[in-house]
Amino acid sequence: MRLIITEKNNVAVKIAEILAAGKPKQASFLKVPYYIFVDREGIDTAVIGLKGHVMQVEFPPEYADWQKVNPADLISAPLVKGATAKSVVRAVKKLAEEADSLVIATDYDREGELIGLEALELAAEANGRLERNVRRARFSALTSTEVTRAFAHLDHLSHPLAHAGEARQDIDLIWGATLTRFVSLSTRRLGSQFLSVGRVQTPTLGLIVEREKERRAFVPVPYWVVSVDLGVGPERVTAVHKEERFLDETRARSVFEKLVGPALVTDVKATRRTTARPAPFSTTSYTSAATSLGFSAAAAMSIAEDLYMDGLISYPRTDNTVYPSSLDLREVLEALSGGRFAAEAQTLLAKEKMVPSRGAKKTTDHPPIFPTGVPGRAGLGEREQRIYELVVRRFFATLADDAVTESTRVDFDVDHEPFFLRGNRVVVPGWLAYYPYARQRDTELPALAKGDACPLLDKRIEGRETQPPSRYGQGTLIELMEKNRLGTKATRHNILQNLYDRGYIRGNPVEPTETGIKMAEALQEYAPAIAYPQMTAQLEADMDAIADRSLTKQDVVDISRRLLREAYDSLETNRERVAGKIVEGIVEDRVVGDCPRCGRKLRIIRSKATRKRFVGCEGYPDCDQTYPLPQRGEIIPADEVCASCGTPRVKVLAGRGRPWVLCLDTECPTKDEYKARKAQREAAAALAAAASSRDGEEEESPPSVGAKRSPSKKAATKKAATAEAPAKKALAKKRVAAVGKKG
């Protein structure tokens, strides 16, 4: 029997359906599914899917106690591998016992190669003969054509590439565990409150913090803009003074005062330019495009992976921006011509010659991301459809013609002062017709010629200020991480998500919290090797060298241990300073404003008794001012007070929407309208419930003779409320006590 091992169960299902001569039979062992079939060549086959990494590198049990083990001991500690999915491991070994050949069909990248090597080692433990009879299937799409081709041209497992993955796994564990324990113990943040530090995570946080410091250090420069509204027939256009930013207000007002009109056209110039087609999607450019549509980086990758598993797009983890010559572009278009995008696909198929665009980066592992199938009748969910459409349209754009746009500039003389206006329009849509995400709205100008006179309808002078550099969006950050060699195409979105989860950043565009800022500052000052990209980028290069066979896994792990030791010694020497700075940020993030009763700080507090959060005055017990808080979403200080009642306001960030602003005072007049609407809803619900209850009583059959009547709902509720009252009083006392302890 031939045994095929895939990375996930849904891939195993797909491969079984594609390779089987008939219908595959599903079986299971310890509730782990696998699939048995005879392929088209008559070979008995079983295919089983893992759950990603079923083996995990970890420290021996004696290193598990955070309180007893010095974090420094982890730097040189031995590492062991343990099973994370024991039932899957046992199922693989059971099937391996009966197999005479093995095919590894995990994802085709560094991580997939490592998972494949782990699968081989497990299978060989049960059946040593398989080590001499193992092959590798490499495919970039879960389509019949691609999978069949891969199994017809089986390759060999790349041990060096897998060892590079192992090195990354070992290094990330050693660095992450050592530094996370040090920082968490130093700041006394243990349990679910721990503070993480990572080899890639921390320099990424540093990039975000540096941009925030640029913003805070930015000193706005005032300037003035002078503009005029001109009449062009029935139309009204706005022209701006050629000196777009007046830094001298006196001069700006002097120009403004002299403007009477009319405006005389002194020049009209139209310039056409060709806008080249975009390159095919790599992981980074895809993620950037998806985030511009409102998706988080993590969500964008998750949806792309689902679409890949469904056979709708190619493998979404790729650096390649050049379609391979083996990819039949017309075949892809023909497949798409049977679905929602039939018109666009058929238009492109009508082209005599098809030469796709290409990017700067060409690799041999996977092609760029492109559509590989058409959704079935069931269709896709709204989010999946938007991502699928993005991939399809990008593919179309790479096959279309370049676009031609026209930019027109009209110059005016208004009382001897130069003014101008610009317009833009698409002359030849080309690829922009297929990829509307990149198309700007046309601003066509009315027909004007040199010498035309236009009456001055209005004039304005506006005082403005220069703006600080903008915060990074998630897409921009992913691109910046790639530029600095931070992480890989498979991990960057997870790194960002970790920063959100640990409370170091928030929102999109990304804003660092005070905790994140102080964490980055502390590590930049006392362990710069950890906090800046250079060292991490060098380790990534070293891991590539393992794959190229110029370094061994042990070489690279030993180098990383030495670098970590140097950084750790510096941190240990400055332990109190590091902890003090980080705690300063944690405390600052909890402050929401000044107490209106006593003037001291109001802080976010979590009750030890109820685990619910609220705002309380740090002056407790002298001041017992408290405010309730929503129990879901992130609370962000708004740095402002309510205009109606003077109480501090906070922002509440819940889900993917915009933060909403909340006045802490429940009796604030601004909440009267909300309370009225709530009362109306409750009254309407009560009337509906009463009506429903009456209808039920009318339909109810009379009780049998001798039967006892059940107490009414009202009576039962009253009884429950009476019984509950002492418990509520006790809980209230606990809350007051908890406020005292926390304050």
Overall description:
This protein is 42% helix and 20% strand. It has five domains: 122 residues, 3-Layer(aba) Sandwich (Rossmann fold), CATH 3.40.50.140; 163 residues, Topoisomerase I, domain 2 (Orthogonal Bundle); 119 residues, Topoisomerase I, domain 3; 117 residues, Topoisomerase I, domain 4, CATH 1.10.290.10; 78 residues, no CATH class. It has 743 residues and is an alpha+beta fold.
The main sheet comes to: 7 strands, antiparallel
- CATH homologous superfamily assignment of the largest domain: Topoisomerase I, domain 2
- Let me know the number of strands: 24
Mean pLDDT: 88
Chain-wise SSE layout:
Elements (H helix, E strand, L loop, with lengths): L1 E5 L2 H11 L5 E5 L2 E7 L5 E6 L5 E4 L21 E4 L2 H13 L2 E5 L4 H17 L7 E3 L7 H9 L6 H29 L13 H17 L4 E11 L2 E7 L7 H10 L4 E13 L7 H10 L4 H13 L19 H8 L5 H8 L32 H18 L3 E12 L2 E12 L24 E2 L1 E10 L8 H10 L8 H10 L3 E2 L4 E2 L1 H13 L1 H4 L1 H15 L5 H21 L1 H16 E4 L6 E6 L6 E5 L8 E3 L5 E8 L6 E6 L6 E4 L8 H28 L13 H30 L1
Helix pairs in contact: 2-3, 3-5, 5-17, 5-18, 6-15, 8-13, 9-12, 10-11, 15-19
Descriptive key words:
alpha+beta; Topoisomerase I, domain 3; 5 domains; seven-stranded antiparallel sheet; six-stranded mixed sheet; 21 helices; disordered C terminus
